Amino acid sequence: MKKRTYYVTTPIYYPSANLHIGNTYTTVAADVLARFKRLTGYDVMFLTGTDEHGQKIQRLAEAKGVTPKEYVDVIVSGIKDLWKIMNISYDKFIRTTDDYHIKGVQDIFKKLYDQGDIYKGYYEGWYCTPCESFWTETQLVDGNCPDCGRPVEKTKEEAYFFKMSKYAPRLIEYIENHPDFIQPESRKNEMLNNFLKPGLQDLCISRTSFDWGIPVTFDEKHVIYVWIDALSNYITALGYGSNNTEALDKYWPADIHLVGKDILRFHTIYWPIMLMALGMPLPKQVFGHGWLLVNGGKMSKSKGNVVDPVVLVNEFGTDPVRYYLLREIPFGSDGLFNNEIFINKINSDLANDLGNLLSRTCAMAEKYFDGIIPAPTAKENVDDNLIECALSTPKKLEDSMDKLRIPEALDTIWELVGKANKYIDETTPWILAKDEDKKDRLGTVIYNLVESLRFISVCLVPFLPETSEKINKQLNVDIATWDSLASFDGTQAGNKVQKGDILFPRIDVEKKIEELNRIKEQNKAAAKKTEMQPIKDQITIDDFEKIDLRVAKVLECESIKGAKKLLKFKVDLGGEQRQIVSGISKYYKPEELVGKSVIVVANLKPVKLMGEISQGMILSGATDDNSKLFTATLDGELPAGSIVR
Ligand code: MSP
């Protein structure tokens, strides 16, 4: 019989920032789905990769004096190392710089152009380089990028557009008729009501202001802008646009695209519309998981609160990290990463519950039977409870995994762990051991414990693969298939158990937290030394001459109602007075700057911010973590209006 197939994907990662525990979360979750399906008999394709084009990479590479490809090569190899240490069992790793992907994307672009879905026009708007996102005037928050809060740049350039709106009614109908397509449910409503139903704008899909991207074959000054390039990876990885479409025929449509909630919109609107335009079936499901937060909110480099998975794995091992992510974070909602909860979880669930069960079982088998697993010949009623629990575990696990309830799946396994520990207390093997007549009963108890642990280790394969292997080794398990869990007799009596190292040594919580904090400080200091914001493209002295910097005296300053970040200044520029709006209210009380001389860009085109005209910009600089900001001044008095250069 032909095996059923299962195609699961993660997002492809930007190589612009080192991956943190939040990105790791997506990939670990996808790995669990892939491993579970493999275990239960599916032919699985698990895809991950890297999203390597764009202006940001080009700038970072230039700052380092290397080519973009040289720049990304180093980072991509680091990402692959990370997946190795997290035990990620991907079947394919796609890089958007791979030749077959480039060809596939060019074919897609050409096809959509030829059939009239792509047209040429002009893009005018605001661009946030770090986020690689375009924004309209109304989307900006206090004049800055609504995602990251950093300044945006005004752009106008020739660009190709994709006629998204044409497909919107079909997509709305599709989403409404396929309730599982967008999950969790709440996110589906958000996509429909906030984005699709209000009407879609055509999507800008090419750029001419940088060249680190896939060129449009029939108009080489354009490179294909990030989302068309990135999203296509899910089909080019299977051979779309090549001579060999065997994998595409076999695995497409994908069973699940797993993505963070921040990129759900791209996957449930742009991507399905692209596929509709290509005449391809849509993925069966897009699942948007929540954020992994740290105390104090979202993880970000600038806040210095990024949790590094490599440090955690070095300190605790891979499986404890996987365990925490999978058990503690409700799949689909936001969850917290916290060192103390993490270490306590290792101590209670892994060291105490699971680790002790294994070491006690092996120790008793060695002490009472020289390690030889006895046959179960003297059954008693108390065994039924344990055996029933073991036999019902696989089905419960399958149900939870079908609903993508990963923590619930682990609850089920730990229920069996708990039952087996309780069984030791109920059957008191150490008392049975005192009575030679109870030898058969003692043997049965040991057999049942070993067999329960075999169930546990098979069920753990998708979640804690290393631990599962260690258990099998100590118990000398030779049948570890899913099907073998249909009956409670897979352990071979006569096999010899081999007590090995403790699975999870207990950790001193306080000491370890101190150590982690120390490592974090060291890494922070090291990162500071090596990291510098990339220098922007060179300009000529003539370019610089275009900027008119002037000394301005602050006459008045007040906050703006409804705009948390903004202050409104009235300044004296010598010959005239101006109003300037600046997003610095976090750092200054309005009265603090009155009477001071600041430096302003005097010939910046005026803009309206929160309904207030701003006729210039006050120069200032912030610390890396944005906790402090200082305005630029001169170290002596100059009259208002004086030129600064
Ligand atoms: N390159 C795009 C994806 C293109 S897919 C066709 C991208 N890359 S990313 O590197 O910025 O993010 C990769 C994934 O990590 C996303 O799913 C994102 O939601 C996820 N996460 C980033 N920070 C996260 C947390 N703090 N918590 C959980 N997931 C997070 O977006």
From TrEMBL:
Keywords: Aminoacyl-tRNA synthetase, ATP-binding, Cytoplasm, Ligase, Metal-binding, Nucleotide-binding, Protein biosynthesis, RNA-binding, tRNA-binding, Zinc. It is an enzyme of class 6 (ligase). A motif ('HIGH' region) lies at residues 13-23. It is found in: Cytoplasm. Binds 1 zinc ion per subunit. It catalyses: tRNA(Met) + L-methionine + ATP = L-methionyl-tRNA(Met) + AMP + diphosphate. Its cofactor is Zn(2+). It holds the Pfam family tRNA_bind. Its EC number is 6.1.1.10. Zn(2+) binds at C128, C131, C145, C148. One of its GO terms (biological process) is methionyl-tRNA aminoacylation. Residues 543-645 form the TRNA-binding domain. A motif ('KMSKS' region) lies at residues 298-302. The keyword S-adenosyl-L-methionine does not apply. Its main location: cytoplasm. One of its GO terms (cellular component) is cytoplasm. CDD domains: Anticodon_Ia_Met, MetRS_core, tRNA_bind_EcMetRS_like. Is required not only for elongation of protein synthesis but also for the initiation of all mRNA translation through initiator tRNA(fMet) aminoacylation. Belongs to the class-I aminoacyl-tRNA synthetase family. MetG type 2A subfamily. Homodimer. This is Methionine--tRNA ligase. The lineage of its organism: Bacteria, Bacillati, Bacillota, Clostridia, Eubacteriales.
